[in-house]
Amino acid sequence: MSADIRKIAVWIEETHREMGQAISPATRKAVAVAVIKNPFAGSYTEDLTPLMDIGAELGGLLGDKCVAALGITPAQAESYGKAAMVGEGGELEHAAAILHPKLGAPLRVAVEKGAALVPSSKKMGGPGQVLDVPLGHKDAAYVRSHFDGIEVSLNDAPRAGEILVAVAVTDSGRPLPRVGGLTHAEAIGKDGLR
Question: Which of 40, 131, 51, 42 is nearest to 99 (CA)?
Answer without folding.
Answer: 51
